[in-house]
Every structure is written in C-alpha cells, then in structure tokens.
Amino acid sequence: MASLKILKLGGSAITDKTKPFSVRKDVVKRLAWEVSRAKPKNLIVVHGGGSFGHPLAKKYRLIEGFKAKSQLKGFAETRRMMMILNKTVVDAFVSQGVDAVSVPPLAFIRTSNGRISFIDEDVLKGLLGLGLTPILFGDVVIDDRLGFTILSGDQIVAKLAVSLKAEKIVLASDVDGVFTSNPKTNPKAKLISKLSLSKLEETVKLKSTTTESMVDVTGTMVGKLKEMIPPVNMGVKVFVVNALKRGRVFQALKGLRVKGTKLEP
Amino acid sequence: MASLKILKLGGSAITDKTKPFSVRKDVVKRLAWEVSRAKPKNLIVVHGGGSFGHPLAKKYRLIEGFKAKSQLKGFAETRRMMMILNKTVVDAFVSQGVDAVSVPPLAFIRTSNGRISFIDEDVLKGLLGLGLTPILFGDVVIDDRLGFTILSGDQIVAKLAVSLKAEKIVLASDVDGVFTSNPKTNPKAKLISKLSLSKLEETVKLKSTTTESMVDVTGTMVGKLKEMIPPVNMGVKVFVVNALKRGRVFQALKGLRVKGTKLEP
Which of A86, A152, B92, B197 has the fewest CB atoms within 10 Å, counting from its CB? Predict the structure, then answer.
C-alpha cells in the first residue's frame, strides 16, 4: 500500500501521565483536526495508553503475563479504560469528519513472549480500501507463552508498516524529537534533526549494555526507536515530532518541512 | 469446549427499540447479576444492537453493502453507537464481578455475501482459557463481495456454538419463547415449550415461501431460529427465554426448570 501513512499518537501526548485516567481532550481534538486537514488517503492511527493504561497495567503486573487469577480483574479493568480512551479518540476524529473506526488489537493480534506472532491484516486492508480510518491502540493481548501481555502501540506501528509496506510513520510524542540527551532534565540537550540507522543501532546497543550513550535519549524513546529499525531498513520514512505543538503532525503527514527528527537508512 | 455456554442478549431486551439509542440499564444490570450468580465456567456473551444499531444501519442502508461514499459516515457512526452500547454491557458485567472483555466482531470476523467466511477463534479460546468472559455484539463487518455488511449476533452465536462445540445456547429475548402466533399482536398465541428440529425446519421453509405457517412466529424470531438449525443438529441445547423476566436467564444457564422454548433435534 504505497500511500499508507501510520500515525502514532503517544500516550504521553494525548493524556496527562501525572494524573490517572486524564485525557487531554483539547490536544486530541486539535490532532483530529490536523489529520482531517492533511486528509491522507490511507491512514492508520495507533494511540498509546498513557495514564489510562499504565497505572492499572503496573498495579496488576500485566506485562509479566498470567501469574494469578487476581490479575484477571486488572485485565478487564485495563481494557475497559483503554476502550474509554479509544472512544475519546474515535469521537474526536468522527467529529472532525474523519470516518474513523475502532479496531481493538486484542481481537486480531496475538503475541509469543511479548512479540507479535499473529496479526490478521485483512480487516485493516478492507477498511482502508473502503476509505475508512482504523484506530488501534496499545492493548492487552493473548500471548501463547505468557497467557497475556501488554502490546505497545509502537510495536504494532512497526509491524504494520513493514507488512503493509507503509510510505511513512509519524511518531507524535510530547517532545520535539530525538535529543542528544534527555530534554526534560538536561537544558543543554540538542535536537537531532536526522538520525541515521547506523547511529540509531549503535545507540540502542549502547543503551542496552551501558548506562551512558552518545545519543542519550530517554528509555521510552530508545524502545520506540528500536522498534523502528525494521521499517527504516525497508525504506519507510519515519518522523518523530511533537504532538503538543500545533501543526507538527499536519506538516509531517503532508510531507512539509517540520521540526523534529527524521530517521534515515 | 464441552462446558461452553453462549448467551445472546437480544437487542429488543437490552434496549428500548421504540426510542433511538436508549439502553435499558436496569435490565442490563440485572442480567449481569444473574450471570454472575450462575457463574458458568466458560461463557461467551453476544448482544444485539437494538435501538443503537438499527436506526443508523437502516438510514445508511448498511445491510446492502457499500454503494456510495456517503455510507462511510453511517458505518463510522453505527460502530460508535455499538461501542457505546457494548461499553454499557461490559461495565455492568465488570461491576457484578464478571471479568468481561469487549471483543468487537469487526476486528476478527469477515463475511462473504452476508455469511461468515472467516473467524479467528483463537482469541476467544485464549480469553476463555484464562477465565475471562468475551463480550461480542452484532456488528458492521468487512464483506469480500459487498464491501461491508451487518452481521447479526444470532449468526455469530450459531457459528461459534458449532465451531467451539458449545454445550448450550441461551437466546434471551423480549418474549417468553416461541409462540404458535405472534404474542405481541395475538392474545390467543400459545407458548411452545418444546420445538423439534423437523417442525422448526418446516416452519422456516413455510415462512420463506408463504405468509402463513403453522408456527406463526415473528419475522425476527424466524431468522433467529433458522440460524439455530446447525447447532441443534449438532446436539447443542438451545433455549429461548425472556430476558425481561427476572430469573429466566439464570435458570437457563444453570440448567434449572425454566419457562421458555427448548429447541430439540
């Protein structure tokens, strides 16, 4: 699907991570408006869980998989909260004239030891073919080894980009892009506008073996970037931009000049 | 799955069909309570659309399949409303201590000319295996000939009962069971407590060729019963009971004496 774009709306951008179950409705609404203005022909949106998914997932240790019956309440509750956040996102898109449709990953993606082992893409192809916009999210899924686990939106984005041969991925986060160090704690951190795959792989490697690195991104950012290696390798254009700044997502989707980081082969 | 029970909550029972988008919250809550008391080991719940699905589906002629771009808004809106109804049902079950999980059919079932042609049952098996209760619903789905169509909860119930080898189906509707004529218009209508498959097939046949029949059930009931022929044939116990009468769903799930209609091979 040559013209397919995949937009990831980071949980840290669309929710307030400091307060459980608090969505940034104004941000979601503006992002839906930017998407409707950019009018991409084929678009899949994947959003994170932020303060809707993480507190319960952590409390019930869902990422570790099934250990005790007491976790099932946490599984059900986490899904309920994710469906509420998803509804807010879908509603915002529909109200901006985007024919958006919720497609919960639990129902069509499974993992093996935390990595996607089964994904039925035909429903997404069908929806895109009709002109609809599927909205997915980081979800609790069935895992053949762990029983269940948490599947990140980033892993979904990368997998779909590769298998559906996407043209572009836009990772919309709460920072301007990839920095030389953590911009939230180091005022001297500098934005990297172009990050090559070799540099990226080096960073990920360093990050997983030592605590220091040349490109000192946050832990979350490292995980995100690591997932992007296969799509970048395949030629998918990947941009990291700030969803909290008006216009960035629009510019990135349209292929206009945009402040952020471009990942390059 | 020998002990699997499938409960269909009819749209006419859980919503008020005379008012668009009106859920009978008290009925849904009581039904969730009856299920939690009956505590079936393996249970799948499928609910209908009632006044949440039908008005929009009719307005945008969704059952006819994709004809015009203008229907896409209707597709998106119908799904939004169905997700809202589904949330109400899931919430009620969770609040009664049932670890219920929404599994939207759009994401894992597809049809060909209105009949199910693909269904990925592994997610349901995974959820049941963990002790969770999947909650499905009549949904808009991708159809390889029509583009999309409306898939009834009844067709889903029958298909799952056959492929997962269910023990029992409980169809919970807004009437006491199958009558000799339409109980809503004919005060002389009599409840049929046992309906054999041969009689049932005869009825369905008559109904589709003539306007009169020996067992004069409503059009909706005929469609429902027709779907049940394969599971009844396979030995699945099928009960039609009234969800609006307290205790009937509980009794049917528990295998107690219950007022209603039993379909027999």
Answer: B197
Inspect the interface and report whether the beta carbons of A66 and B130 lie closer than 8 Å: yes
DSSP per residue over B92-116, as a string? HHHHTT--EEE--GGGTEEEETTEE
Cα torsion for A237, A238, A240, A243, to the nearest 10°? 80
Nearest-angstrom CA–CA distance, A20 and A6: 27
| Residue bearing tokens 């929009």 | B56
CA distance A227 to A169: 12
Instruction: Return the residue matching tokens 């009819």.
Output: B10
- Are residues B101 and A106, on separate chains, in Cβ contact within 8 Å? yes
Residues 6+ apart with CB under 8 A from A166: A1, A4, A5, A6, A160, A231, A236
Helix (H, G, I), strand (E, B) or coil at A189: coil
Give the count of domains, chain A.
Answer: 1
Paired tokens of A89? 């996102």
Q: Which residues pair with B6 in a beta bridge?
A: B44, B169
Mean pLDDT lowest for which of A253-257, B16-20, B193-197, B198-202? B198-202
Residue of A nearest to B101 (CA): A76
Chain length of chain B: 265
For residues A133 and A93, the answer to whether their CB atoms sit within 8 Å is yes
Share of chain B above pLDDT 70, in %: 93
Beta strand A194-196 pairing with B133-137: unpaired
Size of interface A-B (CB pairs under 8 A): 110
pLDDT at B25 exceeding the cut of 90:
yes
Contact state of B142 with A123 under an 8 Å Cβ cutoff: yes
Query: Do A140 and A97 meet the contact criterion of CB atoms below 8 Å apart?
Result: no
A117/B contact by beta carbon, under 8 A: no
Q: What is the CATH number of the domain that holds B248?
A: 3.40.1160.10
| Domain housing B22 | 4-264
Closest Cα of chain B to A106: distance in Å?
7
Q: What is the pLDDT of residues A48-104, one digit of tens each?
A: 999 998 889 899 999 899 999 999 999 999 999 999 999 999 999 999 999 999 999
* Look-up of token digits 């009856």: B34
From B73, B106, B122, residue closest to A123, measured CB to CB? B106
Residue showing tokens 């506008």? A193
Whether residue B104 has pLDDT greater than 70: yes
Would the CB atoms of B80 and A90 count as touching at under 8 Å? yes
For A202-236, write each residue's pLDDT tens digit. Answer: 776 655 544 444 344 445 688 889 999 999 999 99
What ipTM does the predicted assembly reach?
Answer: 0.91
With CB atoms and an 8 Å threshold, state whether A73 touches B103.
no
Chain A: give the shortest CA distance to residue B142, in Å: 6
Q: Determine contact, residues A53/A81, Cβ cutoff 8 Å.
A: yes
A3: which residues sit within 8 A by CB, 6+ positions away? A40, A41, A42, A167
Instruction: Name the residue facing B94 among A76, A102, A127 (closest C-beta).
Output: A76
